[in-house]
Amino acid sequence: MNLNLVNEVTATQLKKDVPDFRSGCTVRVHVRIKEGDKSRIQVFEGIVVAKQGGGINECFTVRKI
Fold this sequence. Notes:
The chain has 1 helix and 3 strands; from the N terminus they run αβββ. It is an alpha+beta fold and 65 residues long. The chain has a 3-stranded antiparallel beta sheet, with no helix packed on it. A hairpin with a 6-residue loop joins β2 and β3. The longest helix has 11 residues.
């Protein structure tokens, strides 16, 4: 597979308005929970413990204190 094509598709999928944060920052995460035919948003607040990956594969771990 052509790596340039993968990079172009990835660049179009990235969000532009993501704030900069790192380990030790306190964040508030809004999670959409679907139960049956209903859905709701639950807010989760905690400290960022780890951040790994990059681009659309980036993920972070939050610990609730």
